[in-house]
Fold this sequence. Notes:
Blueprint: H1 10-23, H2 27-57
Amino acid sequence: MRTIQMTLDDRLVNAVDKVIKRLHTTRSAFTRLALRDALKKVRIQQEEQRHRKGYELTPVKKEEFGDWEDEQIWGDE
């Protein structure tokens, strides 16, 4: 692990300090978790953007999923 220095406003630090007391954790542990969550969120947003662009370039055709229609029938329908 590395030690880094960050500049945060007092209100944010105070809010974090209140939360870490309730969670019985440290600023460092809380920050690591928050950063991991933020990185995951960015990755998901990028993947969604890539999928959107893919479907814009190659839209789903009406008959593309037709083979699965029979699989959607349950019971005596």
